[in-house]
Specification:
Layout: H1 3-14, E1 21-25, E2 31-35, E3 43-48, E4 53-58, H2 64-76, H3 82-96, H4 101-114, H5 135-145, E5 152-156, H6 160-169, E6 189-194, E7 199-207, H7 214-227, E8 256-263, E9 268-277, H8 281-293, H9 300-315, H10 318-331, H11 336-345, H12 348-358, E10 363-368
Parallel strand pairs: 2-5, 6-10
Antiparallel strand pairs: 1-2, 3-4, 7-9, 7-10, 8-9
Helix pairs in contact: 7-9, 7-11, 7-12, 9-11
């Protein structure tokens, strides 16, 4: 995409709103969300975060009734047959061997940040545990957690009445009350894994906004736009190159960095992901901490526009949109348009206060050549 087209596309987004959606709470406790968008493919996949587990199916629009039947059996009433568990055991081991350095430091930043809290638990099973959980244990877990008090049925390009009729009439999800997780307090600290390589992957982070805290989300979004994030536009300028973004100009030559955040029901993580050489790891981390703790926002309006554009780009992605609608329905009643409105209200003093309180206590995770990385209590 030529630079002129990038500018035109971004300008066009300025006047747009995210696709509208309809949400209703059924008498049986299940929440139904419907959204109109373009695009359809055939795909069935599962996903999980530390807050949410779900199954996603994408089909042609006229196949939606059939897809709902499949989704009900797979997601709401899994059988966990012993022979099925035996069949997938080799694939789990294969998946565990495919973890990237980014996957590893993301897992480890949770260990550093939350220590023994519920959010510190890994999404990945130790290889020694693969195959140890049997059909009965998995069925008990499903009967406790896969219930309408915990559930949401999201449809993108699916008629709302079809979703509601199916959810009300088929008993797609068993009756049950919401299961609350233990709160996980951000404590900060360090977690390192040494690996024989020249480079090192690092995350420096503080406690971020929770899913339901829309005002803090708005300030956080503008702050990250200032720090710099990997662009959703192919061929666009990336953080780490010599741009006017708040982080890249401070990093040593050859070091790449991008702001990131993860949001959960009661808290979050926000910070920077770095890829550096072992030799300049110390300088990279110290420069990052300086940029996080003392942001100097020169172009506030431009940061707001970048933050809003990212929301709008994500809203056009079916996977991002469906997951966003699901977490919104489960944990808060706010909408994307509400977040955009809050972003417009953000002032420079809000960002300064956010940085001061958020990065007072740090968590740092690293994978690779970690020898020269400073500890969180040293900076």
């Amino acid at each position: 995409m030529r630079p002129s087209l990038v500018v035109k596309h971004a300008a066009a987004l300025k006047s747009r709103n995210p696709p509208a959606f309809l949400q209703s709470k059924l008498e049986n406790g299940l929440t139904v969300v419907s959204q109109e968008k373009n695009g359809a493919v055939s795909e069935l996949s599962s996903f999980a975060t530390r807050d949410v587990f779900g199954v996603r199916i994408s089909v042609a629009r006229d196949q939606a009734p059939y897809a709902l039947q499949i989704l009900g059996h797979v997601a709401a009433k899994p059988a966990f047959k012993p022979w099925e568990i035996e069949d997938i055991t080799p694939t789990i081991l294969a998946d565990l061997s495919q973890k990237t350095p980014y996957n590893i430091v993301i897992e480890d930043i949770h260990h550093a940040a939350f220590r023994s809290g519920s959010l510190s638990h890994s999404l990945y099973s130790p290889k020694s545990n693969v195959g140890t959980y049997k059909s009965e244990e998995l069925s008990q877990f499903a009967s406790k957690h896969f219930v309408n008090g915990n559930g949401v049925l999201v449809g993108v390009n699916v008629d709302e009445e079809l979703l509601k009729n199916y959810a009300e009439g088929s008993g797609v999800v068993a009756n049950g009350s919401v299961v609350k997780s233990r709160d996980s307090k951000f404590r900060g600290g360090d977690y390192r894994r040494f690996c024989k390589m020249n480079g090192v992957h690092i995350i420096v982070a503080g406690p971020g906004a929770a899913v339901g805290d829309i005002k803090k989300q708005a300030v956080q979004a503008v702050f990250l736009a200032h720090i710099g994030r990997v662009s959703p536009l192919k061929f666009a300028t990336l953080p780490g190159s010599k741009t006017q973004l708040g982080l890249s100009s401070k990093l040593p030559e050859g070091v790449a960095g991008s702001g990131f955040n993860l949001m959960y029901e009661d808290t979050g993580i926000v910070g920077v992901y770095l890829i550096a050489s072992g030799a300049n790891a110390d300088a990279s981390v110290r420069a990052t901490v300086e940029a996080l703790k003392a942001p100097k926002v020169q172009e506030l309006d431009a940061c707001k526009k970048r933050a809003i554009n990212e929301i709008l780009f994500n809203a056009e992605n079916n996977l991002h949109s469906a997951y966003g609608l699901a977490t919104t329905a489960l944990f808060t009643n706010s909408k994307q348009i509400d977040l955009i409105a809050e972003i417009q209200k953000v002032q420079s003093r809000d960002i300064e206060e956010f940085a001061k309180t958020t990065f007072e206590r740090l968590a740092i995770s690293a994978y690779g050549n970690c020898a020269k990385i400073p500890y969180s209590d040293e900076i």
